[in-house]
Amino acid sequence: MADIDNKDQAEMDPADMEDVEDVEEEETVENSKSKARQLTEQLMQNPQILAALQEGLDGLNGSPSGYIESLPKVVKRRINALKNLQVKCAHIEAKFYEEVHELERKYAALYQPFFDKRSDIVKAAYEPTDEECEWKADEEEELTVSKQDEMKEKAKLEEEKKDEEKEDPKGIPEFWLTVFKNVDLLSDMLQEHDEPILKHLQDIKVKFSDPDQPMSFGLEFHFEPNEFFSNTVLTKTYKMRSEPDENPFSFDGPEIISCTGSTIDWTKGKNVTLKTIKKKQKHKGRGVVRTVTKTVPNDSFFNFFTPPEVPENGELDEDSEAVLAADFEIGHFIRERIVPRAVLYFTGEAIEDDDDDYDEEGEEADDEEGEEEADEENDPDYDPKKDAASPAECKSQ
């Protein structure tokens, strides 16, 4: 049998022999790659090796190249001159933002009559005319004349039916509560016990500091008389700073440095920021059980008016810093987006625009993932089985 094999090999065409050698070489290379993958997997499952790799990567992150240190003194001297120019630019930028604040104050006065009229319509102090209520839809939203007539007739019948069932509602009920519920940033703060109170919210106004005062802005929440507290206006004031600090290179425009809120004069038994809990305590010696009543803080939107106080040295613990950071973001968002565009957040149109922005980003991310998948498929060494989690891995997850 061995003689036959040797004879076959002797009679085999030299080109065929080359093909056999190529196959053997490919198998050897594939085996080597397979062993390398197995070794890599074993190494990556070793926590000590992973920790060492992570430490090495952390050291590379943001580390200077060493180029600046290697430069001659005469060049470093010129770099210092550039830094001094940068400091001067930061001070000019601070002046720029101060003037922007002045412009905001100027235009706030121009916007205010329209916001006041909005408030009057919401709280039924003013009934808009037919001309003011006429709204032309976008071209893509326009319907045929017959369809419009049909819908108007249907709406008229429904309105007449509603009029028979109940009285015509005044103004726009639950306007600001609906705005809050439509915005994730604000709805996350709302609790069920807050909603009956916010139904009495009639307006939110933005007030800027006077020209001769330090930069600041305030939010005024105007309420109709209600059973929950005696205040008609709750305020939140944000103090700002628009000047470079000890590190001028970190200056990036005005920053909120502190905030204060109104003291709410709650009606007895109506304070939703506190709750009463009962605890049972057992006496160690006598074994007697007693019930203790305690008043503890309660989650509520109205905690917004009692932010953590910033000490004079400006140092806060991590929890207080997190609360203040969120508070500043909310205050800025109400000032910049909610008050100027309240009706669009009420109808949801502003939210749709925000969602469109995120969708575009998501589509870009999907495109990038698709490109990566295509690259993997074009890779001759790519093995899709390697990407699939084994049953053991799925179990561990």
Descriptive overview:
It is a single chain. The chain has 15 helices and 6 strands. It is of the alpha+beta class and 397 residues long. The strands form 2 sheets. Strands 1-2-3-4 form a 4-stranded antiparallel sheet. A two-stranded antiparallel ribbon has the order 5-6. The longest helix is centred in the first third of the chain and has 50 residues, at 73-122. A hairpin with a 7-residue loop joins strand 1 and strand 2 (216-223). Residues 1-12, 14-24 and 384-397 have low confidence and may be disordered. The protein has helices spanning 2-11, 14-44, 47-60, 67-70, 73-122, 130-133, 145-165, 175-182, 184-187, 195-198, 318-338, 342-347, 349-378, 384-387, 391-396, and strands at 201-208, 216-223, 233-241, 255-261, 274-282, 289-297.
Topology at a glance:
Blueprint: H1 2-11, H2 14-44, H3 47-60, H4 67-70, H5 73-122, H6 130-133, H7 145-165, H8 175-182, H9 184-187, H10 195-198, E1 201-208, E2 216-223, E3 233-241, E4 255-261, E5 274-282, E6 289-297, H11 318-338, H12 342-347, H13 349-378, H14 384-387, H15 391-396
Antiparallel strand pairs: 1-2, 2-3, 3-4, 5-6
Quaternary structure type: single chain
- Strand percentage lies at 5-15%
Largest sheet: 4 strands, antiparallel
Counting DSSP E segments of at least 2 residues, the number of strands comes to 6
Helical/strand content category = alpha+beta
- Low-pLDDT residue intervals, each spanning 5 or more residues: 1-12, 14-24, 384-397
In whole angstroms, the N-to-C terminal distance is 55 Å
Helix fraction?
40-55%
Strand order of the largest sheet: 1-2-3-4
Order of helices and strands: HHHHHHHHHHEEEEEEHHHHH
Radius of gyration, in angstroms, nearest whole number: 35 Å
How many H/I helices? 15
State the shape: extended
Average per-residue pLDDT, rounded, comes to: 76
